[in-house]
Amino acid sequence: MSHTLTIDGISKRYGDVVALDDLSFDVRPGEIFGFVGSNGAGKTTTMRIALGVLSADSGEVRLGNKPVDLEVRRTIGYMPEERGLYPKMKVGAQLAYLAELHGLTRAAARESVGRWTERLGISDRTGDTVDALSLGNQQRVQLAAALVHDPAVLVLDEPFSGLDPVAVDVMSEVLLEKARTGVPVIFSSHQLELVQRLCHRVGIIASGKMRAVGTVEELRGTGNVQLDVSAPEAPVGWAHHLDGVTTISHVDGRTLLSLEPHVDDQLILHTALKTGPVHEFSLHRPSLTEMFREVVTA
Q: Where does the record place the ABC transporter domain (predicted)?
């Protein structure tokens, strides 16, 4: 049975620096949660506390109703941003060793290593040392290390960093597969287009505080919409009197407007038609990248 990973009011200070400030969110069974923020926002600190390798000053992390202790920690698959592999150890032996550390028998560990190295396209490299691999293949080994003990939850810090497009597709499919089995998956990434494509929900963190949490569509729905209107007979300023509407540009009868979330676009269309024919009327909702910029600079 899968459980929710709950981050409940965690705070962390380093001297006068507040790394996390009463941070709360959860990652539900079968959900891929994208955790995004600028460098230094608190993502890695949160993940280390979630794993139990760093203690919070206050608050608690739970898997289900159980606080993260050594027993729970063994059920978590973790991929650190600073990769933690032994460079001079052979890939297959290293993965089997890590699986056994998490409680698998030697036979079960060997079987799991074979399955995951095959799935991740590195089965022909198990006899190589890690430092002999390309960066992309090292990333695949690191992901295999997070998966080899069949974890109950996945916590991945920048797992797509340095991957080629083929490896990105492989890793994406693996995360989707794990989520489909009910595993809660949280990963951080600066590749917001990828987050938008993969994640069920997204949390945006800035200066140690969670600034926004929701589905991609919910987050995009909170930002201003842009409306492109082609009305060749419309005069400059034809939409100025409308509440919540700002004119961005007006060139040769083509007007770009910014609409606050409450504005009825049909009222704008009605107003535009009063000026003459309307040849184009198209809405553009902000992308996750645009929303991110808006949230972190607010």
A: 5-232
Q: Are residues 163 and 207 in the same domain?
A: yes
Q: Which tokens belong to 3?
A: 């459980």
Classify residue 83: in a domain, yes or no. no
pLDDT tens for 8-60 read: 999 999 999 999 999 999 999 999 999 999 888 999 999 999 988 899 999 99
User: Is pTM beyond 0.90 here?
Assistant: no
3-state secondary structure of 216: helix
Assigned domain for 290 exists: yes
Whose CA is closest to 51, among 144, 139, 156?
156
- Examine residue 188 and state whether it is found in any structural domain, yes or no: yes
For the record, the structure tokens of 273 come out as 């038609």
Closest-CA residue to 158 (of 41, 21, 287, 11): 41
Separation of alpha carbons 17 and 271, rounded Å: 52
DSSP per position, 12-75: EEETTEEEEEEEEEEE-TT-EEEEE--TTSSHHHHHHHHHTSS--SEEEEEETTEE--HHHHTT
pLDDT in tens, 45-55: 999 999 888 99
Chain position carrying tokens 């553009």: 284
Domain that holds residue 231: 221-296
Where residue 34 sits, what CATH number does that domain have? 3.40.50.300
Instruction: Give the total number of structural domains in the chain.
Output: 3
Cα 2 off chain centre by: 20
Tell me, yes or no, whether 94 and 136 share the same domain.
Answer: yes
